[in-house]
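Write out this protein's structure.
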Amino acid sequence: MTTTLTPDTSEPWQVLRRAGELTGPRIAQALDRLSEPVRTVARYHFGWCDADGRRTDAGWGKGLRGALVLGGAQALGAAAGQALGAAAAVELVHNFSVLHDDVMDQDATRRGRPTAWTVFGSAQAVLAGDALLVLAMEQLATAPAPVRHSAGIQELCRALLDLVAGQSADLAFEERADVGVEECLAMAAGKTAALFAGACGLGALAADGTPAQTAALRDFGHHLGLAFQLVDDLLGIWGDSRATGKPVGADLRRRKKSLPVVAALHSGTPAGRRLAELYGDGRAWESADIQRATALVEQAGGRSWAVEEAARQRSTALDRLAAVALDPRAAQGLRSLVDLVTHRSS
């Protein structure tokens, strides 16, 4: 199998498929080192087995963050193999955070399947997440130089600390009546964009990139991550559950302060004020309440603001990518991932 990330066509799903072919076996091999039952919980979460440990092919998600590591490295002239350990580490960290996030948010489904904590219990899901974090650090520690050196560890640890801060803010927002748009963007910068930025930074480090190249790719990942979160929030309200794998209106049912909601609440419009009253009524919502909240977010301009802000973040990400000299073919692969992030339906 070729070790080039970007196939002859730069269709986004082809780029992700190639990244998965390179990174997936590395992750699977790492999971095999875990003891039972943590190994089965982790493999179930990745979609590689059912609750009884029987092999399945449900898939392990998009693998977008690992693809950014590989794409960043190749864009600066490195072979994909030079960045495989870093790509596996980033995907393991992402899935560590997802396992914990599902427990904290009490989400019952992900990728169209019951979440790990609903199948194995919260304690086992948390332990599996912990194990993925340890495996991620091991992947970096055994990666080829220069990633295994202190700069690579520091890059991932910085992203992790920002991720924890963002997740903490997200949980705190659920208990607060007033959350500003800038606060919400800062939360998204930690919860989501930090790992995108870290993935691109690790790709640059794997290629022994200059500080300027690393900074440019890190900025590219940051803005791409913000665009991803904005699109994710839009899908959380208006997405098709058959594509997203999550129940319709799940974010609204929890009164989640997602970016479109916060923009609507701060719109100064009658619809925004009615939405604030609905969010603060304290009772469990029925389907009719979710439908009403959905309509109010749109009427207050939350949806249009989020669409425009996602487009702005996309444009800024591409500007950062254009600011550094890159291998043209690999850079096209990164641009195709930008298209995937901003035009996805799941």
